[in-house]
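Q: I'm building a small set of examples for a reading group on sequence design. Run inverse folding on the following structure and report the sequence directly after it, with nothing in between.
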């Protein structure tokens, strides 16, 4: 649908002055013009509703503008998945306000940029796509437990480097010693070894210290 500015404001539950203010702040894309008439569409209405939802969650207009700029500069989902589409991970589609529900005030331009750079988040039109349901759930729990999202992302960067090294190790072993084997067999075997070793390493580090 297309809307004149008065119709758009009414659909969004705000005033025409507010629509124009958001336009001036760069929060709302320019409308399509037909002579002296400005036509807005459902994309503009969705953006206004997102702004309202983020304001309700405590974000400022300046912060929302910065988030929008960072979001719009990110890679789209086709580019991210084209780098190596996950075969075992389930992508999750999120609206900006749903992302804020997961991570609260951790949704900052800096953290959003870090997640986009890592390839955890990508864009698809007005939606955000997280490449892994498991990673989204785990990071959400860590944030709820009090770990800052910036710390979660910093740790994820280090985990990524170690995971790449382990994947190289397993792939090299298989190609060197069992070149005729089905590479698909590597995945569950490698995961079992890594999960067991990580579990034992956590046991060693998290077990209560013995009293003297």
């Amino acid at each position: 649908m297309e809307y004149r500015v008065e119709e758009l404001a009414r659909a969004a539950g705000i005033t025409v002055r507010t629509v124009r203010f958001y336009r001036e702040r760069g929060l709302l894309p320019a409308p399509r013009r037909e002579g002296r008439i400005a036509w807005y569409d459902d994309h503009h209405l969705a953006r206004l509703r997102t702004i309202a939802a983020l304001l309700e969650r405590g974000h400022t207009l300046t912060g929302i503008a910065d988030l929008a700029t960072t979001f719009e500069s990110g890679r789209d989902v086709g580019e991210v998945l084209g780098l190596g589409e996950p075969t075992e991970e389930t992508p999750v589609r999120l609206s900006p306000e749903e992302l804020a529900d997961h991570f609260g005030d951790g949704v900052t331009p800096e953290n959003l940029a870090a997640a986009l750079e890592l390839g955890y988040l990508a864009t698809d039109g007005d939606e955000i796509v997280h490449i892994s349901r498991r990673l989204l759930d785990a990071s959400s729990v860590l944030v709820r437990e009090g770990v800052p999202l910036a710390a979660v992302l910093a740790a994820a960067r280090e985990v990524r480097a170690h995971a790449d090294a382990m994947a190289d190790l397993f792939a090299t072993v298989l190609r060197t010693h069992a070149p005729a084997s089905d590479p698909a067999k590597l995945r569950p075997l490698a995961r079992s070894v890594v999960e067991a070793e990580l579990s034992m390493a956590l046991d060693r580090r998290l077990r209560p210290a013995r009293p003297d």
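The mean pLDDT is 88.
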